[in-house]
Write a structure and sequence with these properties.
single chain; 100 residues; alpha+beta; binds zinc ion
């Protein structure tokens, strides 16, 4: 593993959806539910088409994430992830002042 690509535009693959566009490697947010918790993965590697906007998450990264999220992988899995619990959503709904 001595291969290092500093250029992110180096990898381009033809789009399988529209056949006309090219899919570029980008880093987007990935959301998945783990039980009651919404797991957010910032800067998740994915392929995005510049024509039709088709988005495919990177297969290797998905596999790694699946391993990370598996129950047997240990409890440090959310160390680099943001975990949104439902309690956090509730505080947003409360408003300090009401018009009536
Ligand atoms: Zn496309």
């Amino acid at each position: 593993m001595s291969e290092q690509n500093s250029s992110s535009t180096n990898n381009v693959i033809p789009c399988s959806e529209c056949q006309a566009g090219h899919m570029h490697r980008e880093y987007i947010a990935y959301y998945t539910w783990l039980g009651d918790e919404l797991i957010t993965v910032p800067d998740f590697p994915a392929w995005v088409c510049d024509i039709c906007g088709r988005c495919e998450y990177d297969e290797n990264a998905l596999t790694r994430l699946t391993l990370l999220l598996s129950p047997n992988a240990g409890k440090n899995l959310t160390a680099g992830l943001k975990v949104h619990k439902k309690e956090n959503i509730k505080s947003k709904l409360q408003r300090p002042s009401r018009p009536d």
